[in-house]
């Protein structure tokens, strides 16, 4: 995230169409384009059921909240599929600065870099909640992708969507205020655009973590969260409830 902020300097002074990147990100959310939608279009195909049948090379593992799943620098020899729970990916610089690069939930894959020849992990994965995770050896995953075309189609769609999300995150860092970045992250965490859920309760997430994700300070996050609450965009009631009206912050220039 620091690299994104550094890029902001040379771009200063250029005329930028601020609406275009925002609209692109919002269109993605409105259309609910994502890994789960790709699977939904293939209603007869259940990736979790399929992964349970691939035989040797897979193992279901339980992780407690805050337990490490793998660490930066570990051997990259498997892919992970989240059955239940939430996992965060972090990266640490040579100077010791840590940044959160993603949060994943039910039905998400992570650790797929091993399939592209990545020898060691470039990031760390930690359970944010109690998790049930399926660990799939690289060889078993490759065989499954070759054997089942629907599974490989779903997996490719998942990776492409993730890549789009990373590009949108970079655009968000370059062009938007910290307030808009926070609003967008909250909407993404609430799966904004998912059918039938205009308002969603997000599991407990610290303001420090939100600050890491959007590249600002905890005090700024606290200020904006209080502002969102007073405006009725979010609500605290044993969890964080995100209202679809929070979209007004993202759309407002």
Brief summary:
The chain is α+β, with helices and mostly antiparallel strands and 253 residues long.
3D structure, described in words:
There is one protein chain. This protein is 43% helix and 20% strand. By secondary structure, it is of the alpha+beta class. It has 2 domains: 36-163, Sandwich (Jelly Rolls); 177-253, Winged helix-like DNA-binding domain superfamily/Winged helix DNA-binding domain (Arc Repressor Mutant, subunit A, Orthogonal Bundle). It has a 4-stranded antiparallel β-sheet with strand order 1-8-3-6. Strands 2-7-4-5 form a 4-stranded antiparallel β-sheet.
Radius of gyration (CA) equals: 19 Å
Strands, total number = 11
Kindly give the count of domains: 2
Strand content is 15-25%
The CATH architecture of the largest domain would be Sandwich
Keywords:
20% strand, disordered N terminus, 10 helices, 253 residues, 2 domains, alpha+beta, Jelly Rolls, single chain, 4-stranded antiparallel beta sheet, globular, Arc Repressor Mutant, subunit A
